[in-house]
């Protein structure tokens, strides 16, 4: 989860989030290089006294400053397209989880089981324990196994919501009358927090998401 004064991305808990962080760093380095180069050129322009009365055109420099940005965009576009296809790819999922957005709570259904469905409300402040996080904990958490492909199907009953868990690199819009799906692979156990990231009304800030991830053997023993 995000911690106080942490300006970086959260530690990843899935291979897809690792790839998103790599792409973010790759793009940031390119932007940093461009910023430094343009800043250096502008700084020199203020302090030099070069004058050329006969300069009418510079075809070579125009060719260079047309081709270089195109090459730079290619270096950004190729990893971006690769990542988009990776995020869209769906392998054989072990579990399908259905998430339904309401004003202002989430409902969940484990589609592979007949009668496993529950509502997940934010934990009120008056019932919180010292181990709870304010505005982030819920009364019923999602339980998922690690090291397995998980499919999530997202919809809503009233307005547009967005099911978002940053540590997993997942953000899916929940639209009424539409079923969106994505997948993720959790590679470490833990508790991962998320929130609705689509402004959906007065209590938009109060519909958190909590995923508790265990090893599959532990879940089997617990059940």
TrEMBL record:
Protein name stated in the entry:
Cytochrome c oxidase subunit 2
One GO CC term of this entry?
A: mitochondrial inner membrane
- PANTHER family per the UniProt record, alphabetical: CYTOCHROME C OXIDASE SUBUNIT 2, CYTOCHROME C OXIDASE, SUBUNIT II
Show the InterPro entries listed in the entry. CcO_II (IPR045187), CcO_II-like_C (IPR002429), CcO_II_C (IPR034210), Copper_CuA (IPR001505), Cupredoxin (IPR008972), Cyt_c_oxidase_su2_TM_dom (IPR011759), Cyt_c_oxidase_su2_TM_sf (IPR036257)
Relay the cofactor remark from the entry: Binds a copper A center.
A GO biological-process term = ATP synthesis coupled electron transport
UniProt keyword annotations, A-Z: Copper, Electron transport, Magnesium, Membrane, Metal-binding, Mitochondrion, Mitochondrion inner membrane, Respiratory chain, Translocase, Transmembrane, Transmembrane helix, Transport
Quaternary structure (record): Component of the cytochrome c oxidase (complex IV, CIV), a multisubunit enzyme composed of a catalytic core of 3 subunits and several supernumerary subunits. The complex exists as a monomer or a dimer and forms supercomplexes (SCs) in the inner mitochondrial membrane with ubiquinol-cytochrome c oxidoreductase (cytochrome b-c1 complex, complex III, CIII).
The Gene Ontology terms for molecular function here are: copper ion binding; cytochrome-c oxidase activity
Species annotation: Orthaga olivacea
Source organism phylogeny = Eukaryota, Metazoa, Ecdysozoa, Arthropoda, Hexapoda
Encoding gene per record: COX2
User: What reaction does this catalyse?
Assistant: 4 Fe(II)-[cytochrome c] + O2 + 8 H(+)(in) = 4 Fe(III)-[cytochrome c] + 2 H2O + 4 H(+)(out)
Just give the chief location class.
mitochondrion
């Amino acid at each position: 989860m995000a911690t106080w004064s942490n300006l970086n991305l959260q530690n990843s808990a899935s291979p897809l989030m690792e790839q998103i962080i790599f792409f973010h760093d790759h793009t940031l380095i390119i932007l940093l290089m461009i910023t430094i180069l343009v800043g250096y050129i502008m700084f020199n322009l203020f302090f030099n006294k070069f004058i050329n009365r006969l300069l009418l055109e510079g075809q070579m420099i125009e060719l260079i400053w047309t081709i270089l940005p195109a090459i730079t965009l290619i270096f950004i576009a190729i990893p971006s397209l690769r990542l988009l296809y990776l995020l869209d790819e769906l392998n054989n999922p072990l579990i399908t989880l259905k998430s339904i957005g309401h004003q202002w709570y989430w409902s969940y259904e484990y589609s592979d089981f007949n009668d496993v469905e529950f509502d997940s409300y934010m934990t009120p402040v008056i019932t919180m324990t010292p181990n709870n996080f304010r505005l982030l904990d819920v009364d019923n958490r999602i339980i998922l196994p690690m090291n397995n492909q998980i499919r999530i199907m997202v919809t809503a009953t009233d307005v547009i919501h967005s099911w978002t868990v940053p540590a997993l690199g997942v953000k899916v819009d929940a639209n009424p009358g539409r079923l969106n799906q994505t997948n993720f692979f959790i590679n470490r156990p833990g508790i991962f927090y998320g929130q609705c990231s689509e402004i959906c009304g007065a209590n938009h800030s109060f519909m958190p998401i909590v995923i508790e991830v265990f090893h599959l053997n532990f879940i089997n023993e617990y059940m």
